[in-house]
Model the fold of this input.
Amino acid sequence: MEKRFKKMYTAKHNIKKIDISDTDKLNSVDIKNRIKMKNTEPNSHLVHSQQKDQNLTKLTLTNFKKAMANYYITKVSLFDNKIDKKNLSSSKLGNRTYKSNDENKDDVIHINKAGKNKNMNKISLKKTKTLATNNDSAKITKTENNQKLEINLNENKETEANKNNEKNKKIEENKNIEVIKKIDENKNIEENKNIEEKKDIIPINSLIEKYFNEIKTIIDKDFNIFPFKKLVGHRNVLPIIGHTLLKTLGLLDSRIIAQKKLESFLYTVSDSYKETTLYHNSLHGADVAQSLCIYFISSNAEEVLETTVLDLLGMIVSAMGHDLGHPGYNNNFHINASSDLAITYNDISCLENFHTSFLFKILRKEENNILERFSTQNYKTIRKRMISQILATDMAHHAEVVSLIRTKIKASEDEGQKSFQLLSGNEKTKFEEQQILLNYMIHAADLGHNTKKFEISLEWVSLLSEEFWQQGDTEKSKGIPVSFLCDRDKIDVPGSQVGFLKGFIITTFDCLVSMFPNLKYTMENAKNNIKEWQKLLDQHRVRGWTPPKKESKNEKNNGKKNKNK
Done:
């Protein structure tokens, strides 16, 4: 394009060696000097040389700059719109005409404005299209950005809401955990109240010296715990009896139990029973342990069962703590009331599981741990023994426990044996066979007050009856079913005792005496107690208590007639 323009311009004005590409570098002096150049060739052009020189001199700098400026404007605009050189050469922008105005004697360069305007219109259209597209894209991007911002804001709001919800959930969970912890702490405080609030421990040896003559009577089948309680005090009964029983069985060896820890353990167990509970208190625990020890001493049970130190120690400790912390309400009450014990132990031996757990919590404390000198394996063995024995005191298992022993006795009778073997001699089944017999003996001892002398048995029955009636009163106030033997307005104590002795006690101790004949005194006392209760039943009186009168048929009929009227 530059070459074409150069030829056209030099041909018109006879100018040589003008480099248009360098026009932007020319100053006014250079341009004038170049314009004044003449064609020195001797041709026909000499005639007009003077006139052309005058015309060239009159070509102003401004006209030249305008022409060059228009050229470069079109060039720049074309390149800005990305027009190729091929399209540029074929376009109408190349149709330029250059005219000299002879009338004004000035050479003026005229560019074809029509072609320029057409191309400029096309370029402007393209620019507007691009601007429109750019504007549309900008609008779209803005809307997209706005949508994205809205989405991000919504997401942020949702995340913040979720975070707040999670925080609130965590706070609620923490609150619930704290509430549960407080409840558990309160339960532990109630359970371990006597453990935490330790009372002064009186050295047992000093008590033994003080009550030496009375303590001798402990190892007697006719031992009466009630006058002994008045003598030594309620709190000291279990520690003294427990210490005496362990000594009798040869378990006070320092290699087995530490003396100080034994005293701490015995007093902790005694204090953990509730004195407000009329029957199931520390006196009952001490009495069951004493009865069980007498069963072993009075018979050859230790030899027949082939018991070890672990068996004997676990047996006495289980008996002393088998009703630990008893609240004065039986399992039936807890199940009907959906108490914490029933929920915790799923309505299965609620109290017995609670007593076992409570006992091992006491043993776990360092100052009470009388089992610390046993190996890990021995500890597991004695723990297994104790758990099974305490759970066996649940009356719900009475029929099962008795039937196991009766089948064993019947099998030996069918074989014509005068005496039967309690253990089969199989080492693999020996532990389980021993466990069944030990469970039976602690269950019998738990019912043992019915096989003591009548004056002793009467005292225990009076306490148990009042405890049952207090439970019945609570059940009435709570609107739950009144348990068996717990309604003071309907119970007939002498009649219920006669039925209980005949239905439960005689069958239980009949099996015990069959295994250990030397314990026949229990059956003799039980039969005698049935006679005594029968006398009271005939008199309709027991310790100032009078059962409700039974209406005759005539009285019932008269009552119905009165109601109808």
In short: Residues 447-548 form one domain. The mean pLDDT is 77. The chain has 25 helices and two strands.
